[in-house]
Amino acid sequence: MKTSISTIFSFLFLIQFIVAQDRITGETFATRSVVLGQNGMVATSHPLATQIGLDMLKSGGNAIDAAIAANAALGLMEPTGCGIGGDLFAIVWDGRTKKLYGLNASGRSPQSLSLDYFKKEGMTKIPSHGPLPVSVPGAVDGWFELHGKFGSRPMTEILGPAIDYAEKGFPLTELIAWYIQRTVPFFESKGFPNVEDTYKTQNGGKLPNEGEIYKNPYLANTYRKIAEGGRDAFYKGDIAKIVGKFIKEQGGFLSAKDFAAHKSEWVEPVSINYRGYDVWELPPNGQGIAALQMLQILKGYDFSKIEFGSAEHLHLFTEAKKLAFEDRAKYYADLDFFDVPVEELLSDSYAKERRAMIGEKAGMYNAGQISAGETIYMTVADKEGTMISLIQSNYRGMGSGMAPPKLGFMLQDRGELFSLKPGQANTFEPGKRPFHTIIPAFITKDGKPFMSFGVMGGDFQPMGHTQIVMNLIDFGMNIQEAGDAPRWDHTGGASPMGRLTEDTGLIRTESGIPYSTIRGLMDKGHRMGTARGIYGGYQAILWDAENKVYHGASESRKDGQAAGF
Protein backbone atom coordinates (compact mmCIF):
# COMPACT_ATOMS: atom_id res chain seq x y z
CA MET A 1 0.00 0.00 0.00
CA LYS A 2 2.84 2.41 0.82
CA THR A 3 4.40 1.74 -2.58
CA SER A 4 1.06 2.35 -4.31
CA ILE A 5 0.49 5.69 -2.57
CA SER A 6 4.07 6.72 -3.29
CA THR A 7 3.58 5.88 -6.96
CA ILE A 8 0.38 7.91 -7.11
CA PHE A 9 2.02 10.96 -5.55
CA SER A 10 4.99 10.65 -7.89
CA PHE A 11 2.61 10.51 -10.85
CA LEU A 12 0.66 13.56 -9.67
CA PHE A 13 3.92 15.44 -9.11
CA LEU A 14 4.97 14.61 -12.67
CA ILE A 15 1.59 15.60 -14.13
CA GLN A 16 1.77 19.13 -12.70
CA PHE A 17 4.97 19.73 -14.63
CA ILE A 18 3.60 18.20 -17.82
CA VAL A 19 0.59 20.51 -17.61
CA ALA A 20 2.85 23.46 -16.82
CA GLN A 21 5.08 22.67 -19.84
CA ASP A 22 8.01 24.16 -17.89
CA ARG A 23 7.62 27.57 -19.56
CA ILE A 24 10.25 30.06 -18.43
CA THR A 25 7.94 33.09 -18.61
CA GLY A 26 4.24 33.86 -18.67
CA GLU A 27 1.30 31.71 -17.65
CA THR A 28 2.13 28.04 -17.37
CA PHE A 29 -0.92 27.03 -19.40
CA ALA A 30 0.23 29.03 -22.46
CA THR A 31 1.27 26.84 -25.39
CA ARG A 32 3.67 29.34 -26.92
CA SER A 33 4.66 33.01 -26.98
CA VAL A 34 2.75 35.70 -28.81
CA VAL A 35 3.71 36.09 -32.50
CA LEU A 36 4.96 39.58 -33.40
CA GLY A 37 5.18 41.50 -36.67
CA GLN A 38 5.38 45.11 -37.84
CA ASN A 39 3.99 44.94 -41.37
CA GLY A 40 1.13 42.46 -41.19
CA MET A 41 -0.33 39.49 -39.37
CA VAL A 42 -2.51 36.51 -40.32
CA ALA A 43 -4.09 34.07 -37.86
CA THR A 44 -6.17 31.14 -39.10
CA SER A 45 -6.97 27.60 -38.01
CA HIS A 46 -4.73 26.05 -40.71
CA PRO A 47 -0.99 26.79 -41.22
CA LEU A 48 -1.18 26.61 -45.03
CA ALA A 49 -4.11 29.05 -45.10
CA THR A 50 -2.12 31.38 -42.84
CA GLN A 51 0.82 31.21 -45.24
CA ILE A 52 -1.44 31.97 -48.22
CA GLY A 53 -2.70 35.07 -46.44
CA LEU A 54 0.82 36.10 -45.49
CA ASP A 55 2.04 35.65 -49.07
CA MET A 56 -0.81 37.87 -50.25
CA LEU A 57 0.24 40.60 -47.81
CA LYS A 58 3.91 40.30 -48.76
CA SER A 59 3.10 40.58 -52.46
CA GLY A 60 1.30 43.89 -51.91
CA GLY A 61 -2.25 42.77 -51.25
CA ASN A 62 -4.17 44.18 -48.33
CA ALA A 63 -5.87 42.55 -45.35
CA ILE A 64 -9.13 41.97 -47.24
CA ASP A 65 -7.38 40.31 -50.18
CA ALA A 66 -5.48 38.11 -47.75
CA ALA A 67 -8.59 37.24 -45.75
CA ILE A 68 -10.53 36.11 -48.83
CA ALA A 69 -7.56 34.09 -50.08
CA ALA A 70 -7.17 32.39 -46.71
CA ASN A 71 -10.90 31.75 -46.34
CA ALA A 72 -11.02 30.13 -49.79
CA ALA A 73 -8.12 27.91 -48.75
CA LEU A 74 -9.89 26.96 -45.52
CA GLY A 75 -12.97 25.92 -47.50
CA LEU A 76 -10.71 23.39 -49.20
CA MET A 77 -8.41 22.46 -46.33
CA GLU A 78 -10.97 22.46 -43.51
CA PRO A 79 -14.19 21.25 -45.18
CA THR A 80 -15.32 19.89 -41.82
CA GLY A 81 -15.91 23.43 -40.61
CA CYS A 82 -16.53 25.80 -43.49
CA GLY A 83 -16.85 26.30 -47.22
CA ILE A 84 -18.73 28.16 -49.93
CA GLY A 85 -21.87 26.22 -49.05
CA GLY A 86 -22.06 28.28 -45.85
CA ASP A 87 -22.45 31.82 -44.53
CA LEU A 88 -20.03 34.56 -43.49
CA PHE A 89 -19.90 37.50 -41.07
CA ALA A 90 -17.13 40.08 -40.77
CA ILE A 91 -16.11 43.21 -38.87
CA VAL A 92 -13.56 45.43 -40.64
CA TRP A 93 -11.50 48.27 -39.23
CA ASP A 94 -10.58 50.31 -42.29
CA GLY A 95 -7.15 51.88 -41.93
CA ARG A 96 -8.06 54.67 -44.37
CA THR A 97 -11.37 55.91 -42.97
CA LYS A 98 -10.59 54.90 -39.37
CA LYS A 99 -14.04 53.34 -39.06
CA LEU A 100 -15.59 49.97 -38.23
CA TYR A 101 -17.78 48.25 -40.79
CA GLY A 102 -19.97 45.18 -40.30
CA LEU A 103 -21.00 42.66 -42.96
CA ASN A 104 -23.86 40.18 -42.57
CA ALA A 105 -23.41 37.68 -45.41
CA SER A 106 -25.92 35.11 -44.18
CA GLY A 107 -28.44 33.49 -46.49
CA ARG A 108 -32.21 33.27 -46.34
CA SER A 109 -34.74 30.44 -46.27
CA PRO A 110 -36.37 29.22 -49.52
CA GLN A 111 -39.24 31.42 -50.72
CA SER A 112 -41.35 28.39 -51.65
CA LEU A 113 -41.10 26.72 -48.22
CA SER A 114 -43.72 27.60 -45.60
CA LEU A 115 -44.42 26.95 -41.94
CA ASP A 116 -47.54 25.06 -43.05
CA TYR A 117 -45.37 22.49 -44.83
CA PHE A 118 -43.69 21.48 -41.57
CA LYS A 119 -47.05 21.42 -39.78
CA LYS A 120 -48.57 19.15 -42.44
CA GLU A 121 -45.56 16.83 -42.20
CA GLY A 122 -45.99 16.63 -38.43
CA MET A 123 -42.57 18.15 -37.70
CA THR A 124 -41.91 19.99 -34.46
CA LYS A 125 -38.35 20.93 -35.44
CA ILE A 126 -36.47 21.28 -38.70
CA PRO A 127 -34.26 18.23 -39.41
CA SER A 128 -30.54 18.62 -38.80
CA HIS A 129 -29.55 17.06 -42.14
CA GLY A 130 -30.93 16.55 -45.61
CA PRO A 131 -32.52 19.13 -47.96
CA LEU A 132 -34.95 20.88 -45.58
CA PRO A 133 -32.47 22.84 -43.40
CA VAL A 134 -30.58 24.20 -46.44
CA SER A 135 -30.62 27.99 -46.76
CA VAL A 136 -28.92 30.14 -49.41
CA PRO A 137 -25.13 30.08 -48.90
CA GLY A 138 -23.93 33.65 -48.38
CA ALA A 139 -20.13 33.28 -48.19
CA VAL A 140 -19.31 33.91 -51.86
CA ASP A 141 -21.40 37.09 -51.97
CA GLY A 142 -19.67 38.08 -48.74
CA TRP A 143 -16.28 37.75 -50.43
CA PHE A 144 -17.32 40.01 -53.28
CA GLU A 145 -18.92 42.58 -50.98
CA LEU A 146 -15.70 42.77 -48.97
CA HIS A 147 -13.62 42.86 -52.14
CA GLY A 148 -15.76 45.53 -53.79
CA LYS A 149 -15.52 47.84 -50.78
CA PHE A 150 -11.95 47.23 -49.63
CA GLY A 151 -10.09 44.78 -51.92
CA SER A 152 -7.14 45.68 -54.15
CA ARG A 153 -6.07 42.55 -56.05
CA PRO A 154 -8.10 40.74 -58.76
CA MET A 155 -10.12 37.74 -57.61
CA THR A 156 -8.25 35.50 -60.05
CA GLU A 157 -5.08 36.24 -58.08
CA ILE A 158 -6.81 36.00 -54.71
CA LEU A 159 -8.38 32.57 -55.38
CA GLY A 160 -5.36 31.28 -57.28
CA PRO A 161 -3.56 29.61 -54.34
CA ALA A 162 -6.68 27.72 -53.22
CA ILE A 163 -7.30 26.56 -56.80
CA ASP A 164 -3.70 25.35 -57.06
CA TYR A 165 -3.89 23.42 -53.78
CA ALA A 166 -7.26 21.91 -54.74
CA GLU A 167 -5.82 20.57 -57.98
CA LYS A 168 -2.40 19.42 -56.76
CA GLY A 169 -3.38 18.43 -53.24
CA PHE A 170 -2.09 19.15 -49.74
CA PRO A 171 -1.40 17.03 -46.61
CA LEU A 172 -4.30 16.76 -44.17
CA THR A 173 -3.59 18.08 -40.68
CA GLU A 174 -4.23 16.05 -37.53
CA LEU A 175 -7.53 17.54 -36.38
CA ILE A 176 -9.13 17.80 -39.83
CA ALA A 177 -8.13 14.22 -40.65
CA TRP A 178 -9.80 13.12 -37.40
CA TYR A 179 -13.00 15.01 -38.22
CA ILE A 180 -13.23 13.99 -41.87
CA GLN A 181 -12.68 10.31 -41.05
CA ARG A 182 -15.77 10.46 -38.86
CA THR A 183 -17.99 12.89 -40.75
CA VAL A 184 -17.90 11.59 -44.32
CA PRO A 185 -18.82 8.01 -43.29
CA PHE A 186 -21.75 9.45 -41.31
CA PHE A 187 -23.15 11.11 -44.41
CA GLU A 188 -22.52 7.98 -46.48
CA SER A 189 -24.47 5.94 -43.93
CA LYS A 190 -27.43 8.28 -44.50
CA GLY A 191 -27.36 7.46 -48.19
CA PHE A 192 -26.82 11.06 -49.26
CA PRO A 193 -25.75 11.26 -52.92
CA ASN A 194 -22.43 12.60 -54.24
CA VAL A 195 -20.67 12.45 -50.86
CA GLU A 196 -18.37 9.62 -51.92
CA ASP A 197 -17.68 11.20 -55.31
CA THR A 198 -16.94 14.63 -53.79
CA TYR A 199 -14.69 13.53 -50.93
CA LYS A 200 -13.33 10.07 -51.78
CA THR A 201 -13.40 9.29 -55.52
CA GLN A 202 -11.02 12.18 -56.29
CA ASN A 203 -8.61 10.73 -53.71
CA GLY A 204 -8.29 7.17 -54.95
CA GLY A 205 -11.55 6.05 -53.39
CA LYS A 206 -10.49 6.58 -49.77
CA LEU A 207 -10.26 9.29 -47.16
CA PRO A 208 -6.66 10.37 -46.53
CA ASN A 209 -5.21 10.13 -43.04
CA GLU A 210 -3.10 12.76 -41.31
CA GLY A 211 -0.13 13.66 -43.50
CA GLU A 212 -1.61 12.07 -46.62
CA ILE A 213 -2.48 14.12 -49.69
CA TYR A 214 -6.03 15.36 -50.19
CA LYS A 215 -7.36 16.85 -53.45
CA ASN A 216 -10.63 18.41 -54.57
CA PRO A 217 -10.53 19.13 -58.34
CA TYR A 218 -14.28 19.74 -58.40
CA LEU A 219 -13.84 22.62 -55.97
CA ALA A 220 -10.90 23.93 -58.02
CA ASN A 221 -13.19 24.14 -61.04
CA THR A 222 -15.92 25.88 -59.02
CA TYR A 223 -13.42 28.39 -57.60
CA ARG A 224 -12.11 29.07 -61.12
CA LYS A 225 -15.63 29.86 -62.36
CA ILE A 226 -16.14 32.25 -59.45
CA ALA A 227 -12.74 33.92 -59.93
CA GLU A 228 -13.37 34.52 -63.62
CA GLY A 229 -17.14 35.13 -63.62
CA GLY A 230 -17.59 36.97 -60.33
CA ARG A 231 -20.35 36.48 -57.77
CA ASP A 232 -22.98 36.05 -60.50
CA ALA A 233 -21.20 32.90 -61.66
CA PHE A 234 -22.25 31.43 -58.32
CA TYR A 235 -25.66 33.03 -57.79
CA LYS A 236 -27.04 33.41 -61.33
CA GLY A 237 -25.19 30.85 -63.46
CA ASP A 238 -24.80 27.11 -63.84
CA ILE A 239 -23.79 26.60 -60.19
CA ALA A 240 -27.11 27.95 -58.88
CA LYS A 241 -29.03 25.89 -61.43
CA ILE A 242 -27.16 22.70 -60.47
CA VAL A 243 -27.84 23.30 -56.78
CA GLY A 244 -31.52 24.10 -57.33
CA LYS A 245 -32.10 21.03 -59.48
CA PHE A 246 -30.25 18.80 -57.00
CA ILE A 247 -32.14 20.05 -53.93
CA LYS A 248 -35.49 19.64 -55.70
CA GLU A 249 -34.57 16.04 -56.56
CA GLN A 250 -33.84 15.43 -52.88
CA GLY A 251 -37.24 16.74 -51.82
CA GLY A 252 -36.10 20.20 -50.79
CA PHE A 253 -37.14 23.74 -51.72
CA LEU A 254 -34.01 25.86 -52.25
CA SER A 255 -34.05 27.04 -55.87
CA ALA A 256 -32.00 28.94 -58.42
CA LYS A 257 -34.43 31.85 -57.88
CA ASP A 258 -33.48 31.93 -54.19
CA PHE A 259 -29.82 32.16 -55.23
CA ALA A 260 -30.52 34.97 -57.70
CA ALA A 261 -32.41 36.99 -55.07
CA HIS A 262 -29.65 36.77 -52.46
CA LYS A 263 -27.79 39.82 -51.17
CA SER A 264 -25.53 40.56 -48.22
CA GLU A 265 -26.09 43.49 -45.89
CA TRP A 266 -23.66 46.07 -44.50
CA VAL A 267 -24.65 46.68 -40.87
CA GLU A 268 -23.53 48.92 -38.02
CA PRO A 269 -21.62 46.98 -35.34
CA VAL A 270 -22.89 47.49 -31.78
CA SER A 271 -20.86 47.79 -28.60
CA ILE A 272 -20.70 48.11 -24.84
CA ASN A 273 -17.87 49.58 -22.81
CA TYR A 274 -16.13 47.10 -20.53
CA ARG A 275 -13.78 48.83 -18.08
CA GLY A 276 -12.58 51.35 -20.68
CA TYR A 277 -12.56 49.04 -23.71
CA ASP A 278 -15.32 49.09 -26.35
CA VAL A 279 -16.24 45.53 -27.30
CA TRP A 280 -17.96 45.27 -30.70
CA GLU A 281 -20.28 42.62 -32.13
CA LEU A 282 -22.77 42.47 -35.00
CA PRO A 283 -26.51 42.84 -34.35
CA PRO A 284 -28.90 39.89 -34.84
CA ASN A 285 -29.70 37.60 -36.65
CA GLY A 286 -26.41 36.53 -35.00
CA GLN A 287 -25.89 35.96 -31.29
CA GLY A 288 -23.03 38.42 -30.80
CA ILE A 289 -24.97 40.72 -28.48
CA ALA A 290 -25.25 37.81 -26.01
CA ALA A 291 -21.55 38.33 -25.26
CA LEU A 292 -22.20 42.03 -24.76
CA GLN A 293 -25.13 41.32 -22.44
CA MET A 294 -22.95 38.99 -20.39
CA LEU A 295 -20.19 41.57 -20.12
CA GLN A 296 -22.69 44.26 -19.11
CA ILE A 297 -23.79 42.08 -16.20
CA LEU A 298 -20.28 40.96 -15.22
CA LYS A 299 -18.76 44.43 -15.16
CA GLY A 300 -20.76 45.04 -11.99
CA TYR A 301 -18.39 42.71 -10.09
CA ASP A 302 -14.81 43.45 -9.00
CA PHE A 303 -12.76 40.64 -10.52
CA SER A 304 -9.54 42.03 -9.10
CA LYS A 305 -10.73 40.32 -5.91
CA ILE A 306 -11.90 37.10 -7.60
CA GLU A 307 -9.35 34.53 -8.73
CA PHE A 308 -9.37 33.27 -12.31
CA GLY A 309 -10.89 29.80 -12.55
CA SER A 310 -12.34 29.95 -9.04
CA ALA A 311 -15.82 28.76 -8.14
CA GLU A 312 -16.95 32.38 -7.69
CA HIS A 313 -15.62 33.33 -11.15
CA LEU A 314 -17.39 30.45 -12.90
CA HIS A 315 -20.58 30.89 -10.86
CA LEU A 316 -21.00 34.57 -11.73
CA PHE A 317 -20.08 33.89 -15.35
CA THR A 318 -22.61 31.06 -15.64
CA GLU A 319 -25.45 33.03 -14.09
CA ALA A 320 -24.76 35.95 -16.44
CA LYS A 321 -24.79 33.51 -19.35
CA LYS A 322 -28.13 32.05 -18.30
CA LEU A 323 -29.69 35.50 -18.12
CA ALA A 324 -28.34 36.57 -21.52
CA PHE A 325 -29.34 33.31 -23.21
CA GLU A 326 -32.93 33.59 -21.98
CA ASP A 327 -33.10 36.92 -23.85
CA ARG A 328 -31.32 35.30 -26.79
CA ALA A 329 -34.10 32.71 -27.00
CA LYS A 330 -36.89 35.27 -26.88
CA TYR A 331 -35.58 38.22 -28.87
CA TYR A 332 -32.75 37.32 -31.29
CA ALA A 333 -33.88 36.98 -34.91
CA ASP A 334 -33.64 38.49 -38.39
CA LEU A 335 -34.12 42.25 -37.95
CA ASP A 336 -36.05 42.39 -41.24
CA PHE A 337 -38.78 40.29 -39.61
CA PHE A 338 -38.63 41.19 -35.91
CA ASP A 339 -37.85 44.43 -34.11
CA VAL A 340 -35.09 43.19 -31.79
CA PRO A 341 -34.72 45.70 -28.90
CA VAL A 342 -30.92 45.81 -29.15
CA GLU A 343 -30.46 49.17 -27.42
CA GLU A 344 -32.58 48.16 -24.44
CA LEU A 345 -30.94 44.75 -24.12
CA LEU A 346 -27.50 46.38 -23.96
CA SER A 347 -28.41 49.25 -21.63
CA ASP A 348 -26.78 49.75 -18.23
CA SER A 349 -30.16 49.94 -16.51
CA TYR A 350 -31.31 46.62 -17.93
CA ALA A 351 -28.02 44.95 -16.99
CA LYS A 352 -28.45 46.25 -13.44
CA GLU A 353 -31.93 44.70 -13.25
CA ARG A 354 -30.66 41.36 -14.51
CA ARG A 355 -27.57 41.39 -12.28
CA ALA A 356 -29.77 41.83 -9.20
CA MET A 357 -31.30 38.43 -9.88
CA ILE A 358 -28.00 36.58 -9.34
CA GLY A 359 -27.60 34.95 -5.94
CA GLU A 360 -25.14 32.65 -4.22
CA LYS A 361 -26.72 29.51 -5.67
CA ALA A 362 -27.40 28.25 -9.20
CA GLY A 363 -30.60 29.84 -10.48
CA MET A 364 -33.27 29.48 -13.17
CA TYR A 365 -34.38 32.58 -15.06
CA ASN A 366 -36.79 33.86 -17.69
CA ALA A 367 -36.21 36.42 -20.40
CA GLY A 368 -36.44 40.03 -19.30
CA GLN A 369 -39.44 42.19 -20.16
CA ILE A 370 -38.48 44.62 -22.89
CA SER A 371 -40.78 47.05 -24.61
CA ALA A 372 -40.84 46.38 -28.16
CA GLY A 373 -21.43 22.56 -35.16
CA GLU A 374 -17.84 23.54 -36.20
CA THR A 375 -16.77 26.81 -37.76
CA ILE A 376 -13.62 28.62 -38.82
CA TYR A 377 -12.53 31.96 -37.45
CA MET A 378 -9.66 33.98 -38.90
CA THR A 379 -8.26 37.48 -38.69
CA VAL A 380 -5.83 39.50 -40.82
CA ALA A 381 -4.12 42.89 -40.42
CA ASP A 382 -2.01 44.84 -42.90
CA LYS A 383 0.60 47.62 -42.92
CA GLU A 384 -2.05 50.28 -43.63
CA GLY A 385 -3.80 49.49 -40.35
CA THR A 386 -6.77 47.63 -41.82
CA MET A 387 -7.90 44.69 -39.68
CA ILE A 388 -10.60 42.13 -40.49
CA SER A 389 -12.37 39.81 -38.08
CA LEU A 390 -14.01 37.07 -40.18
CA ILE A 391 -16.00 33.98 -39.31
CA GLN A 392 -17.42 31.44 -41.74
CA SER A 393 -19.23 28.15 -41.31
CA ASN A 394 -21.53 25.47 -42.70
CA TYR A 395 -23.00 24.51 -39.27
CA ARG A 396 -22.79 21.05 -37.70
CA GLY A 397 -19.32 20.63 -39.13
CA MET A 398 -19.58 19.85 -42.83
CA GLY A 399 -23.22 20.87 -43.12
CA SER A 400 -26.43 19.30 -44.35
CA GLY A 401 -25.02 16.27 -46.14
CA MET A 402 -26.26 17.79 -49.42
CA ALA A 403 -23.28 17.84 -51.82
CA PRO A 404 -24.38 19.06 -55.27
CA PRO A 405 -22.90 16.95 -58.08
CA LYS A 406 -19.32 17.73 -59.13
CA LEU A 407 -19.13 21.15 -57.44
CA GLY A 408 -16.78 20.14 -54.62
CA PHE A 409 -18.63 21.51 -51.60
CA MET A 410 -21.49 20.74 -49.20
CA LEU A 411 -24.43 23.02 -48.46
CA GLN A 412 -25.06 24.39 -44.96
CA ASP A 413 -27.91 23.37 -42.68
CA ARG A 414 -28.47 26.72 -40.93
CA GLY A 415 -32.21 26.42 -41.46
CA GLU A 416 -32.29 23.95 -38.59
CA LEU A 417 -31.94 26.95 -36.28
CA PHE A 418 -35.42 28.29 -36.99
CA SER A 419 -38.23 27.69 -34.52
CA LEU A 420 -41.39 25.98 -35.77
CA LYS A 421 -43.51 27.42 -32.95
CA PRO A 422 -45.81 30.12 -34.38
CA GLY A 423 -45.45 33.69 -33.14
CA GLN A 424 -41.85 33.61 -31.92
CA ALA A 425 -39.14 36.05 -33.01
CA ASN A 426 -37.20 33.29 -34.78
CA THR A 427 -40.19 31.38 -36.21
CA PHE A 428 -39.63 30.11 -39.75
CA GLU A 429 -40.82 32.35 -42.58
CA PRO A 430 -39.99 32.28 -46.32
CA GLY A 431 -37.04 34.48 -47.25
CA LYS A 432 -35.96 34.91 -43.63
CA ARG A 433 -32.45 34.63 -42.20
CA PRO A 434 -32.26 32.05 -39.40
CA PHE A 435 -30.85 32.75 -35.94
CA HIS A 436 -27.09 32.42 -36.37
CA THR A 437 -24.38 31.20 -34.00
CA ILE A 438 -21.25 32.45 -35.78
CA ILE A 439 -19.98 35.84 -34.57
CA PRO A 440 -16.82 37.90 -35.23
CA ALA A 441 -15.64 40.35 -32.56
CA PHE A 442 -13.51 43.47 -32.30
CA ILE A 443 -12.23 45.69 -29.47
CA THR A 444 -11.36 49.37 -29.67
CA LYS A 445 -9.95 51.69 -27.02
CA ASP A 446 -10.37 55.46 -27.13
CA GLY A 447 -11.76 55.15 -30.66
CA LYS A 448 -8.71 53.30 -31.99
CA PRO A 449 -8.26 49.62 -32.95
CA PHE A 450 -7.09 47.35 -30.17
CA MET A 451 -7.87 43.73 -31.06
CA SER A 452 -9.61 41.62 -33.67
CA PHE A 453 -10.65 38.20 -32.36
CA GLY A 454 -13.12 35.37 -32.43
CA VAL A 455 -13.84 31.97 -30.92
CA MET A 456 -15.52 29.13 -32.82
CA GLY A 457 -18.02 26.65 -31.48
CA GLY A 458 -21.80 27.05 -31.86
CA ASP A 459 -23.55 28.15 -28.68
CA PHE A 460 -20.18 28.43 -26.95
CA GLN A 461 -19.14 31.48 -28.97
CA PRO A 462 -20.64 34.26 -26.80
CA MET A 463 -19.24 32.46 -23.76
CA GLY A 464 -15.86 32.20 -25.48
CA HIS A 465 -15.86 35.88 -26.41
CA THR A 466 -16.71 36.85 -22.84
CA GLN A 467 -13.98 34.62 -21.42
CA ILE A 468 -11.38 36.12 -23.78
CA VAL A 469 -12.34 39.71 -22.88
CA MET A 470 -12.23 38.93 -19.16
CA ASN A 471 -8.91 37.08 -19.48
CA LEU A 472 -7.36 40.12 -21.13
CA ILE A 473 -8.91 42.92 -19.09
CA ASP A 474 -9.75 41.40 -15.71
CA PHE A 475 -6.94 38.88 -15.38
CA GLY A 476 -4.13 40.62 -17.26
CA MET A 477 -3.28 37.85 -19.73
CA ASN A 478 -1.63 38.46 -23.09
CA ILE A 479 -3.55 37.42 -26.21
CA GLN A 480 -1.93 33.98 -26.44
CA GLU A 481 -2.53 33.22 -22.77
CA ALA A 482 -6.11 34.48 -23.06
CA GLY A 483 -6.79 31.83 -25.71
CA ASP A 484 -4.88 29.00 -24.09
CA ALA A 485 -6.43 29.45 -20.64
CA PRO A 486 -8.74 26.59 -19.62
CA ARG A 487 -12.38 27.06 -20.62
CA TRP A 488 -15.84 26.03 -19.55
CA ASP A 489 -19.33 26.29 -20.93
CA HIS A 490 -22.91 25.98 -19.76
CA THR A 491 -25.65 24.00 -21.52
CA GLY A 492 -29.37 24.02 -20.97
CA GLY A 493 -31.91 26.79 -20.84
CA ALA A 494 -34.16 28.24 -23.50
CA SER A 495 -33.15 28.39 -27.16
CA PRO A 496 -34.22 30.40 -30.22
CA MET A 497 -35.49 27.10 -31.70
CA GLY A 498 -38.29 27.02 -29.11
CA ARG A 499 -36.81 24.95 -26.27
CA LEU A 500 -37.84 26.10 -22.78
CA THR A 501 -35.78 26.20 -19.59
CA GLU A 502 -36.40 23.11 -17.47
CA ASP A 503 -33.56 23.15 -14.92
CA THR A 504 -30.34 24.96 -14.01
CA GLY A 505 -28.39 23.25 -16.79
CA LEU A 506 -24.89 21.78 -16.79
CA ILE A 507 -21.44 23.38 -16.48
CA ARG A 508 -18.78 21.53 -18.48
CA THR A 509 -15.13 22.26 -17.78
CA GLU A 510 -11.81 21.59 -19.46
CA SER A 511 -9.25 19.62 -17.48
CA GLY A 512 -7.35 22.78 -16.56
CA ILE A 513 -10.14 23.87 -14.20
CA PRO A 514 -9.15 22.54 -10.75
CA TYR A 515 -11.29 20.14 -8.76
CA SER A 516 -11.52 22.67 -5.95
CA THR A 517 -13.51 24.88 -8.35
CA ILE A 518 -15.73 22.00 -9.44
CA ARG A 519 -16.41 21.12 -5.80
CA GLY A 520 -17.19 24.76 -4.98
CA LEU A 521 -19.67 24.97 -7.88
CA MET A 522 -21.38 21.80 -6.67
CA ASP A 523 -21.77 23.49 -3.29
CA LYS A 524 -23.58 26.32 -5.09
CA GLY A 525 -26.04 23.89 -6.65
CA HIS A 526 -24.51 23.54 -10.11
CA ARG A 527 -24.41 20.25 -11.99
CA MET A 528 -20.99 19.49 -13.47
CA GLY A 529 -19.73 17.54 -16.47
CA THR A 530 -17.09 17.32 -19.18
CA ALA A 531 -17.16 17.32 -22.97
CA ARG A 532 -14.78 16.73 -25.86
CA GLY A 533 -13.99 19.35 -28.47
CA ILE A 534 -16.82 21.82 -27.81
CA TYR A 535 -14.71 24.74 -26.62
CA GLY A 536 -14.15 26.21 -30.05
CA GLY A 537 -10.93 27.58 -31.47
CA TYR A 538 -9.50 31.08 -31.15
CA GLN A 539 -7.46 33.47 -33.26
CA ALA A 540 -6.56 37.06 -32.44
CA ILE A 541 -4.53 40.04 -33.60
CA LEU A 542 -3.76 42.93 -31.23
CA TRP A 543 -2.39 46.29 -32.36
CA ASP A 544 0.26 47.82 -30.10
CA ALA A 545 -0.09 51.47 -31.13
CA GLU A 546 2.84 52.66 -29.01
CA ASN A 547 5.40 50.36 -30.63
CA LYS A 548 3.48 49.95 -33.91
CA VAL A 549 3.61 46.16 -33.69
CA TYR A 550 0.96 43.52 -34.32
CA HIS A 551 0.59 40.70 -31.78
CA GLY A 552 -0.85 37.44 -33.15
CA ALA A 553 -2.27 34.36 -31.42
CA SER A 554 -3.67 30.99 -32.47
CA GLU A 555 -4.57 28.45 -29.84
CA SER A 556 -3.60 24.81 -29.42
CA ARG A 557 -7.13 23.37 -29.67
CA LYS A 558 -6.90 23.62 -33.47
CA ASP A 559 -4.23 23.01 -36.11
CA GLY A 560 -3.82 26.75 -36.65
CA GLN A 561 -1.04 29.27 -36.85
CA ALA A 562 -0.47 32.98 -36.41
CA ALA A 563 2.30 34.46 -38.56
CA GLY A 564 3.53 37.98 -39.18
CA PHE A 565 6.32 39.89 -40.87
What fraction, in percent, of the residue positions are helical?
25-40%
Helices, by number, come to 19
Low-confidence stretches: 5-20
Strand count: 19
Cα separation of the termini: 57 Å
Note the beta-strand portion.
Answer: 15-25%
**How would you sum up the global shape?**
globular
Average predicted confidence as pLDDT: 94
Could you give the order of strands across the largest sheet?
A: 1-18-17-13-12-9-8
Q: Biggest sheet, in brief? A: 7 strands, antiparallel
Radius of gyration: 23 Å
User: Which class do the helix and strand fractions yield?
Assistant: alpha+beta
GO molecular function: leukotriene C4 gamma-glutamyl transferase activity
EC number: 2.3.2.2, 3.4.19.13
Family: Belongs to the gamma-glutamyltransferase family.
Pfam family, one: G_glu_transpept
What does this structure look like?
The chain is α+β, with helices and mostly antiparallel strands. Helices cover 37% and strands 16% of the residues. The chain is built from 19 helices and 19 strands. Strands 1-18-17-13-12-9-8 form a 7-stranded antiparallel beta sheet. It has a 7-stranded antiparallel beta sheet with strand order 7-4-3-11-10-2-19. Strands 14-15-16 form a 3-stranded mixed beta sheet. A hairpin with a 4-residue loop joins strand 3 and strand 4. Residues 5-20 have low confidence and may be disordered.
